[in-house]
Amino acid sequence: MAKLVPFNRRNPIRQVGGFEDFYNMLDDFFNEPISTGRNLRHDTFKLDIEEKDNEYVIEAELPGVKKEEINLELKDGRLCISIEREENEEIKEKNYLHKERRYSSMSRSIYLGDTKEEEINAKLEDGVLCIKVPKKEEIEGTKSIPIE
């Protein structure tokens, strides 16, 4: 809104020579709504978690992601899916070289509890990562502990 002030109505403090651009920059900075430029909805990937009787089935939508860019880790009952991508685009036309680079990383973490770590399998097909995590059998019943 600072730029809509009529040109003949100037602030006497701002008439110090050479600072008009600086003051305009400050006006723009403080009058714009605060935004980080990031949006959680667009900076992560869609995740579906289904609990079955004997396993968890996790599906993550990862269009365009290669399996080499995906890292899966299970630690203390928490499954972490992370992606690191580095894209290089190079277009040559006549004497012009256009080159862009982009780096992105995303991760999601899910607490699953006790699982059979050695039987977990994951498959990436048509941009969907499907992870099957077998549950450990729950010990049923009560064990009596003698007191000495």
Brief rundown of the structure:
With 148 residues, the chain is mainly beta. It contains 2 helices and 7 strands. The strands form 2 sheets. It has a 4-stranded antiparallel beta sheet with strand order 1-2-7-6, with no helix packed on it.
Describe the structure in your own words:
The protein has helices spanning 20-31, 40-43; strands spanning 47-51, 55-61, 70-75, 78-93, 96-111, 121-125, 128-134. By secondary structure, the protein is mainly beta. The strands form two sheets. Strands 1-2-7-6 form a four-stranded antiparallel β-sheet, with no helix packed on it. The longest helix is centred in the N-terminal third of the chain and has 12 residues, at 20-31. The model has no long low-confidence stretch (mean pLDDT 78).
Set out the fold topology.
Blueprint: H1 20-31, H2 40-43, E1 47-51, E2 55-61, E3 70-75, E4 78-93, E5 96-111, E6 121-125, E7 128-134
